[in-house]
Amino acid sequence: MKENKDVWVFIEQHDNKIQDVSLELLGKARELATELNSAVAALLLGDKLTELSKTVSTYGAEKIYIVDDAELALYRTLPYAKAASMVIQKYTPEIVLFGASYVGRDLAPRVASILKTGLTADCTDLQIGDYQYRQKTYEKILYQIRPAFGGNIIATIVTPEHRPQMATVRDGVMKMPLPQNSNHAAIFNEKVSFSKTDLALEILKQEIEKKKVDLKKAQIIVAGGYGVGNPANFKLIEDLADALGGQVAASRAAVDAGFIEKDFQVGQTGTTVRPRLYVAVGISGAVQHTAGMQESSKIIAINSDPAAPIFKIAHYGIVGDLNEIVPKMIDLFKQGGSTTKL
């Protein structure tokens, strides 16, 4: 069989709606495929997928491998793992990427196990480069980059001798590509037979609770950290967000302390955001948090500790008591003023 260097993305969909993380990965796959001089391909599993294949094509897939079967209408681990692994085994791509959603985190390791290859979870970056080990050089392999040891170091993981190279990436980590209506992908319709064992689990009812907030779409975010002190003080964060016409968010420490719900969490284990303005109040700036907001266009940090790491990435820093500073900011913005008056 001819060597296949294609970069594949598993397209996650629910109720025939493609998840953003899959489209974001198609953009990253295009960068990787350019380095490899190969094609971007999508793996699409589900039921009644004709319209979805058109969308996938506009976001950069040059090839789309489809398993369209009523048994795949709702996600179930065994049939999805069988379908995905069989198609991947047939076409032997170089790289396969999954979103680090609850589906991706369940499916990707099972597929990796079936294919007897490696998998790196929750990557924050993916690159192509060379790797040398015991006087042997592996050219143009996938650098799977992710924080390790609680975010204290950044690890680069490679899979030099097994294919495909596989990784999961969280929602929002990669930038969403612009749709290209002129792109027309080649379609490959695949058939997979399922046994009674594959279909042993039957879904009687599915309920999905929607998130209370969509932080990814917010252009102005005011985030509070553990330094806010208590849930009552968090009202200041909400008031400042209202004054700015922005959205409230929080660090993991604030969420763990019970100041606000997890849907509002920004960071490595929360949502990755890229707003025009990010105001960090009482947030120390641990790497777990900054990994999810450091690409904001403008960052304002308010903290009583002048040595807080958040000031290293902030465009503007204010050292002082947030209980004094934030009310002044709220008053100024409500009056149509600016922070230069502080």
CATH topology descriptor of the largest domain: Rossmann fold
Q: CATH top level of the largest domain?
A: Alpha Beta
Structural class: alpha/beta
User: What proportion of the residues form beta strands (DSSP E)?
Assistant: 25-35%
Order of helices and strands: EEEHEHEHEHEEEEEEEHEHEHEEH
CATH homologous superfamily (4th level) name of the largest domain:
HUPs
Query: What would you say the CATH architecture of the largest domain is?
Result: 3-Layer(aba) Sandwich
Roughly what is the average pLDDT, rounded to an integer? 90
> Compute the gyration radius: what is it?
22 Å
Number of strands: 17
Strand order of the largest sheet: 7-11-6-1-4-5-12
How many separate domains make up the residues?
A: 2
Query: For this entry, what is the oligomeric state of its chains?
Result: single chain
* Biggest sheet details: 7 strands, parallel
Q: Which geometry do the CA atoms define?
A: globular
Gap between N and C termini: 68 Å
Residue ranges: pLDDT <50 for 5 or more in a row?
A: 338-342
Helix tally equals 8
**Portion of residues in helices?**
25-40%
Question: Can you walk through the features of this model?
Answer:
- The chain is α/β, with parallel strands linked by helices and 342 residues long.
- It folds into two domains: 7-189, 3-Layer(aba) Sandwich (Rossmann fold); 215-341, Rossmann fold (3-Layer(aba) Sandwich), CATH 3.40.50.
- The protein is globular and about 65 Å long.
- It has eight helices and 17 strands.
- A seven-stranded parallel beta sheet has the order 7-11-6-1-4-5-12, with helices on both faces. The chain has a five-stranded parallel beta sheet with strand order 14-13-15-16-17.
- Mean pLDDT is 90; it is low at 338-342.
- The longest helix is centred in the first third of the chain and has 17 residues, at 20-36.
